[in-house]
Amino acid sequence: MTDETHDPAETPADAPKREVQTLYVAEAEDGIRLDRWFRRRWPHLSNIQVQKMARSGQIRVDGARIKPEGRLTAGAAVRVPPIPDDTSRQAGDAHTLSDQDIRFAKSLVIYEDDMVIALNKPHGLAVQGGTKTSRHIDRLLGAWGEGMDRPRLVHRLDRDTSGVLLLGKGPEAAKRLAGAFARRQAKKTYWAIVIGNPKPAAGQIDMPLKKTGINDFEMMRPAERKDPRAEPAETAFATISRAAHRAAWMALRPFTGRTHQLRAHMAAIGHPILGDPKYGDEASKELSGPLKMQLHARRIELDHPAGGKLIVEAPLSPEMKAGFAHFGFSADEADSDPFEGVKRQR
Predict the structure, then answer these.
(1) Dihedrals φ, ψ of 271, to 5°?
(2) 308 CB contacts (<8 Å, ≥6 apart)?
(3) What angle do CA 60, 61, 63 make, to 5 degrees?
(4) Hey, is 263 helix, strand or coil?
(5) CA 225/CA 231 separation, integer angstroms
(6) CA-CA distance, 153 to 168, in Å (whole number)?
(7) pLDDT by residue (tens digit) across 283-335?
(8) Would you put residue 170 in left (φ > 0), alpha (ψ -120 to 50) or beta?
(9) Residue 303 annotated in active site
(10) Measured between alpha carbons, how far is 125 from 179 in angstroms, rounded to an integer?
């Protein structure tokens, strides 16, 4: 998502060296306002600053001008001019990584080649920063260098979801990977432990969702199809194993990329994901006990930017291992792709 190129004309001679960037809109950000998209990434920016950059043409989307209140679509390329520094921080704090940070970032790598890096994102680590988040994956990407050497995010995971997170090396790789996600060509398999046993044991959820609340209180709720705020959302599910009637280990495949889609869909059919502090009910919270959120991005399959197929699997996180141990599940019980041959209903 951070496809960076340098444009000398955008940088005054007496200013610190900065770069124009081309960032790709994540699938979970489809429909977000431009000004909000900027504020998510650079919380220190004021609305006036974002408006000025948009109205002066410094910000462009797919090469065209856009108003601050304009909506973005998944996969769109956003031209980002040099962003002013956050003066509330000491110089260098926002970009300088310690040796410990660099070692930690590199320790997350589960696959790497000339065009792609795959990380096993830990539970509790945000992908991007916010007003209260200074340590996140996007910042840690400086471990590979800055400018053209810096990997680019091409999709996102929730803070409390662990598992496969793909990065593109260089503008072209990032563009191709982001395009695959935007066109729904990436086959994503998540593992989750939910309360109870869904019936039927396998099927598809076709349930539009809409956002309610703001910031940390934002949630996705089921919506009527005619609701102007409704966003189409489709998820395939399959039961892999059961712990009597208490809990089930599920494979989930999102065909769309709505915010919190899997969490909201499982809660809506009466089987919240265990350890989910936002979508869980009283019964699931009691069953969860000390367990953290039991949702893991297990596998991604998509076209490799250089040709052929890219398939990456992420080992279970410590939090998911705790859930498996508690309910007696074993990772070797699952097929590599429980959704082989399954397609969207629409």
Answers:
(1) -135, 70
(2) none
(3) 70
(4) helix
(5) 8
(6) 7
(7) 999 999 999 999 999 999 999 999 999 999 999 999 999 999 999 999 998 98
(8) left
(9) no
(10) 25
Query: Cβ contacts of residue 146 below 8 Å, gap of 6+?
Result: 95
Give the DSSP letter of residue 33. B
- Residue 223 DSSP symbol: -
Residues with Cβ within 8 Å of residue 175, at least 6 apart in sequence: 3, 24, 77, 168
- Convert the pLDDT of each residue in 17-58 to its tens digit: 357 888 888 877 888 889 888 887 887 788 888 988 998 999
Tally the C-alpha atoms within 13 A of residue 42's C-alpha that lie toward its C-beta: 16
Report the distance separating Cα 25 and Cα 200, nearest Å. Answer: 35
Bond before 200 cis per omega within 30 degrees: yes
- Tell me how many degrees the CA angle 190-213-281 measures, rounded to the nearest 5: 55
In sequence order, the 6+-apart residues with CB closer than 8 A to the CB of 184 are 27, 255, 256, 257
Please, which residues have CB within 8 angstroms of residue 125's CB and are 6 or more apart in sequence? Answer: 135, 136, 137, 159
Q: Which residue of the set 138, 158, 160, 276 is catalytic?
A: 158
Taking Cα atoms as reference points, which of 130, 208, 147 lies closest to residue 2?
147
At residue 254's C-alpha, the angle toward residues 249 and 259, to 5°, is 105
